[in-house]
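Hello,

Following up on my earlier ticket. Below are the four sequence lines again, exactly as submitted.
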Amino acid sequence: MTTAGRILKTTYKDIKADILSKIVQGIWTPGSLLPNEVALAESYDCARATVNRAMRELAEDGLIERKRKAGSRVRLSPLRQARFDIPLVRREIEELGAQYRYALVKSEAGAPPDWLRARLQLPKTGEVLHLACMHYADGAPYQFEDRWINLTLLPQAWEADFSSVGPNEWLVGQVPFSNAEISFSATAADKAISDHLGCPIDAPVFQVERATWWNGQAVTAVRLWHRPGHRMTTRY
Amino acid sequence: MTTAGRILKTTYKDIKADILSKIVQGIWTPGSLLPNEVALAESYDCARATVNRAMRELAEDGLIERKRKAGSRVRLSPLRQARFDIPLVRREIEELGAQYRYALVKSEAGAPPDWLRARLQLPKTGEVLHLACMHYADGAPYQFEDRWINLTLLPQAWEADFSSVGPNEWLVGQVPFSNAEISFSATAADKAISDHLGCPIDAPVFQVERATWWNGQAVTAVRLWHRPGHRMTTRY
DNA sequence: CAGTGGTCTAGACCACTGA
DNA sequence: CAGTGGTCTAGACCACTGT
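Thanks for your patience. The regenerated structure is below:
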């Protein structure tokens, strides 16, 4: 049945919103089977591809589960996932409306310690650059950075001037894309951290560890410690 | 020009992989303009829709930026984002291969404290249920939970038996979907936390705070403290 | 205002998998 | 083996936006 006066087509967003609201309202409860794509296309009076896109995105968003032949079901417990942007410190600070300042604390090249070699699966020979840096927001300590760079993979790092540009920003320009593993935890400030962040020894600090690879080779590993009270927040 | 002997079609995944590799290899460098969809469709010998899907996903993944009329460019600094699954504690523990055990520590209803009222934008009247719970992995303390449930929105909670089922699992069955704000930080264990987690007072613990809403009304707020040494890890 | 991406269509074939 | 989602196509119209 075609409605003569219809002006606007049904978009995949309309369909997403409609299905979402049916789930939120409890009309389609967790575990229940949704109509198949052909049936939905009929009821929304649109092409199957349009329904498919709506359903595919709902599945990506973790709201429904889809299986060939078995159909689509509302997830029993909606798979919740949160997304975090991994910002450059500079941007993070500037977006707080604060003045960013960077300082190089230490820089030395040499053979990697064993734990780093194991962590990054580094070859037996080859040197790494070890840097320590501070990032300030409006003059106050914001983040302390302990970084290792694989000099075998990035020999340019020998000549880079890390006293003016932070290693993160420098790396972004060198390695177009990389795979990374990131982890968050709480740790107690040791002497170095407490000195640099200006907090008591053993103060609880939020710690970020990240290791990145490019084409299977380790690029860099870093540990970041945030000033006490730091929070990482997101909505979903 | 049609290739007679071609067996397999070019899929959008092939195209994604090919473009990704061109970016990784540095053939298309950050900031550079990619061919438009029509041109790519020709060069891959496929429909524009196929190219479109590949490019759209690359954009979602944060690798390229797309603008009408302006075309698609490799992002200057690839927008990196990490996704975390927000698991039920039970599953988190079971996936570690450990035995899960739950215990209710405290349960009492009453008027919400002011900070909670402000945090959740609760109305002036109405009560909340305040629970404290422990989650164990193989008998060892894993997570301590401090939770508030909006009894105005969820009066069923009056009758729920939280001595056998954790509030998170119970809530999942009551509220099909919700919006949430989540944040992570490091904090020092207070008396209650150290007692329950069996760690020294002032030990650094990883803290998760989450508040959730359904149709604009506050459902629940929770603070979770993990045993010392806990890490939250992901790859991207 | 013209070029680019955004979306929809109607149809087709295929891959997977539950019954 | 039959039903469902996964994907591709060729074409079309439209929305946005830089020039």
